[in-house]
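Teaching note: in complex prediction, the entire set of molecules is handled at once rather than each chain in isolation. The prompt given to students was simply: 'Predict the structure of this complex.' The entities are:
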Amino acid sequence: MKIGGGHVRGGGGAADGPVKVTQTPYVVGSSVLGVKCIDGVVISSDTLASYGSMAKFRKISRIHKVSDACVIGAGGEFSDFQEIKKTMDGVMIEQFCMDDGYVLTPSAIHQYLVRVMYGRRNKMDPLWNQVVMAGFHDGKATLGMVDQVGSNFESEVIATGYGLYMGLPLLRNAYRPDITVAEAKKLLEDIMRVLFYRDARTSNSIQIAAVTKDGVEISEFYDLETKWDYQRFVDGARSGDVSTW
Amino acid sequence: MFRNQYDTDITTYSPQGRVHQIEYAMEAVKQGSAVVGLRSATHVVLATLKRSSSELASNQRKLFEIDSHVGIAIAGLTADARVLTRFMRAECHNHQYVYETPMPLSRLVLAVADKSQVATQRASKRPFGVGLLVAGYDTTGAHLYQTCPSGNYFEYEAFAIGARSQSAKTYLEKHFESFAALSLEELCRHAILALQETVASSKDTELTTRNTALAFVGRDTPWTMVEDDSVEEYLLVLDAEDELEEGDADAARQQTQQPPAAMDES
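The expected output is the structure of the full assembly:
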């Protein structure tokens, strides 16, 4: 049985047959990483949307400000992320129009997104994303994630995509409960560099966002400095050690 | 009010710009027995007088939990109140499910008000014949709201609705300025005393564990109802008040500087 839709659309026209929905992602972003700090929370992603092995869109933002206390970053299908951005903006506008001063907390925003993702999954028409939510409310940082099937949790350190395999161990090693936003930014840069070296779908152009008591700050895109003159890398297999590749 | 030629339909205005059917619906609220509500900075208390149709019948319940942080007291058509109760519970649970956080009071009451308003503007419907006192605690503190068949809602420091509620309101007006700083116990005391004002001249000559129920909610205090025998300890404030009054009367009679011991012990 084909995934998605399933029912036959009545009324004829050019698209007879079962309704087709997202089966597989096409234009994808890779990892998003996040760290909870004592004075805020920081997330990072690169600025690449890949089309298979082609680095198609090299300077796009995969991070989005939802409220003055919350940002989201997403890997996975980029068009679905754009849909999520529209949806969350719509929610925040609705809240504003209620005109009662009540603001959705980052946790509430996270849970709302979980409901959206899980609902779509139940319709067998998922938004193919891994979304990281980072917020700061009432003096406390919150960091959570939700994926295309609605699995969600909160944690001190979060990573998606290849970042999960290569980055999360490094994050866990470096994490301390009193880590500061400034230290975390440096840490995330280092890990993004590792991901650029070793993940074929991550670029060295990155973006970092921090949420603190002063609000949301999303950086400009900037390139990571990289080092390609490690002797063993330069010598490579000629030195007899094939493992440097 | 008297019948007139503009009062048959909810969809008809009178030349004075009034919709009489809405006002008649509000009369239904006044027919219900009294409920009293008051709040401090941290808690809200509701006290209700439960009528019974006969000796054989139970006393009609007027307090309903909506969520652990919200509850209501009703006055008017009980069946209509059940509909609103079910609606409010669904709204609260849905909010909790979607946002993982208790529903803010103001939004819940607004939802009730908007639903009530719909019933005042359709030829096929009639207004809800019940008024609610909504008591709850959310991130912005303790709140007491009143909703109305008209679709209006108001926030109060203290209020009463139902039969002879004006007497309770008079008591509340005298004391409300002190409520903000009171403890839960003192708040309950005022609630009982205010409720007592509404029985003074009716056939229920006094508040008993059978005809009185109260509830409270607030900071670190989920909705708690006090009914039947548990009400007894709250009714003791009435005995203390009686002693106070008798003490006053005694003092006046004896014209002595020394107040009787009873007054010191309240």
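Point out the following to students. Residues 52 and 59 of chain B are 4 Å apart (CA to CA). Chain B is about 40% helix and 25% strand.
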